[in-house]
């Protein structure tokens, strides 16, 4: 296991690390996005209005934004847990795919169960299948020294190949040319939020937002309790901060790598519930949509803490939903340009997250002393 590099934000006030720096990174990203919009011959302020309106301008838009944010919460938490152990889990895509396989097997073959029994079994299958897919790279890292970044990337490709084979040759209905399974039973689908609201007498416009958002928020609370309020979480953080000190204190770094990665894989696997039981209602190819990679930026912008991951996930959900509206309302800003804008936000939130630290450190340290 590699030695952890010094923390670039050590000595800085906590409020600056959790609020000021992410805010400045976001402003810098939007400034760069404004230049892209100007090069397209459009006015940046108009583009901002369309993007924000498309993400939050109506109850339906908010529903779509929160739907995307739900997936980003799961994948952001998955990355964050691994970060706490000094690991960089890039395998969220593959873990979510295999987690989706577990969900599909339950919904297709155990659909004789009532919903109240089927749902916890499906959640358990998503978590177990995702955890199992992360377990192998974890053991290779812990026992053989194989780099977790390399193995998780490789396992993404393996997971995709497995899904292609199963959906083309095994799980697709007879006579179908589509690489997908049959539809899940009606009672094997997660209720939409607007349906739940309607049953309570509240009228909401339809959107793909479903009750998996509640599970995502519960996972946030669970990760917070595990990492900062349990002995296992403390051991995980010690290994991430200083593996040598962990060994001196009687903590096995290898065991903690396995624990952190399997929990990370379980969280990534649960992302499939939002897509498959919530919207697709069948197992389809590439349902993850790159959300596993976006989870890396969400975890970085949220500083690896659930309280930061939730607003970061909402931000990226807004970029996805508002970006689609932006490409529709302003034809000069194509869908590819929207992807570039999203990529700039990821760049500033991830690779350039400490860009402003050298300039601000003297001022912030002086304020902390005063």
Mean pLDDT: 88
pLDDT < 50 stretches: none
Dominant shape: globular
List the secondary-structure elements in sequence, H or E.
HHHHHHHHHHHHHHH
- The amount of beta strand, in percent, is under 5%
User: Which structural class do the helices and strands define?
Assistant: mainly alpha
What's the helical proportion of residues? over 70%
Describe the protein.
Helix 3 packs across helix 13 and helix 4 (92-109) runs antiparallel to helix 5. The protein is globular. It is 73% helix and 0% strand. It has helices at 14-39, 44-56, 59-84, 92-109, 115-144, 148-170, 193-199, 212-229, 231-241, 243-248, 253-280, 291-301, 306-329, 335-349, 357-369. The protein starts with 13 loop residues before the first helix and ends with a helix. It has a domain at 74-303. It is mainly α.
